[in-house]
Amino acid sequence: MNEEKLAEPGLRRCVDSFLCGIRVYRCLSVVALALILASCGTNKPGSVDSSPNQMAKHLKLKRLENVEIDYLLFLPRGYDAKAQKLWPLMLFLHGAGERGTNVWKVATHGPPKNVTSKPDFPFILVSPQCPEGRIWSNDQLLLLLEEMIRTYKVDKSRVYLTGLSMGGYGTWSLGLSYPELFAAMVPICGGGEFISPYLSSGDKPEALRSLGIWAFHGARDPVVPLAESERMVELSKKLGVREAKLTVYPEAGHDAWTETYKNPELYEWLLEHKRTPAKK
Questions:
Q1: For residue 84, what are the contacts with CB-CB under 8 A and spacing of at least 6?
Q2: Which three-class secondary structure state does DSSP give residue 81?
Q3: Higher per-residue confidence, 225 vs 8
Q4: Using the 8-state DSSP alphabet, how is residue 279 labeled?
């Protein structure tokens, strides 16, 4: 476009209007871009854009709960509440068949059955009953254990955990989640899941390292596969447990507990283990 044409008044007005339009368009683009950036800046890095139908909320409640637990309590011969002597404590978790409201069903198998004929059993034995239709709750077991330690002459360095079948699952869960409470544990024909002990073990490496684990399982178990105990023993080692071993009965089915609980070597092994206080 040459100077002569630009000199024409009509043409110059058209060019000026065109250039003005470009400037206005640029200004509007900058404003729009600023608005977009401002709206993006309201979200935290990594957050998802808000939706008119989705809102962020927070719930905080205080709840009072009544806890009721039926259990069998065995006090060894020579126990004296007024004496200074402290005793080892064994927490026993039964299987699914002993759930219900008749607490004496708990004595069908295991230590609570054996002590009926062996009053010299050298442990305070606590055998809770799980309600029908439920599984073992770590929270309730912790409350029971805390109450037993507060009420009776318990040597806190010698608290042991054991259970069979469903109780074997409960033993793996409670023992690996709270290793600082137990000197050793004996899960029988049980199993468990990975994520809870894995996540809860991060701040308890020393307690895990010193936790004794002796698992038992029948090679022909049709209810809980042997692979369950094998997997949990390997998981324990990965979490840092130094002493985790598994005994397999080649001909046994689901009942791996009768042979285990009548073996005196088991109780000797348990008493060899003590829980040392965590270093502060």
A1: none
A2: coil
A3: 225
A4: P
List Cα–Cα distances, 144 to 82, 124, 126, in angstroms.
22, 14, 9
DSSP letter (8 states) at residue 54: B
Q: How far apart are CA 48 and CA 51, in angstroms?
A: 9
Stated as kind and residue range, the H or E segment containing 88 is strand 87-93
Residue 127 near residue 171, CB atoms below 8 Å:
no
How many of the other CB atoms lie within 10 Å of CB of 105? 16
pLDDT in tens, 52-97: 889 888 999 887 878 899 999 999 999 999 999 999 999 999 999 9
Q: Which helix (H) or strand (E) holds 167?
A: helix 166-177
How far, in Å, are 55, 137, 176, 178 from residue 196 at the CA level? Answer: 29, 13, 9, 11
Q: What is the pLDDT of residues 41-54, one digit of tens each?
A: 445 555 566 678 89
C-alpha distances out from residue 8 to 1, 100, 105, 201, Å: 12, 104, 110, 86
- Cα–Cα distance measured from residue 260 to residue 246, given in angstroms and rounded to the nearest whole number: 12
pTM (two decimals):
0.79
Q: Closest Cα partner for 105 from 122, 123, 124, 130?
A: 130
For tokens 């069998």, what's the residue?
A: 72
SS3 95: coil
In which element (H, E) is residue 214 found? strand 212-218
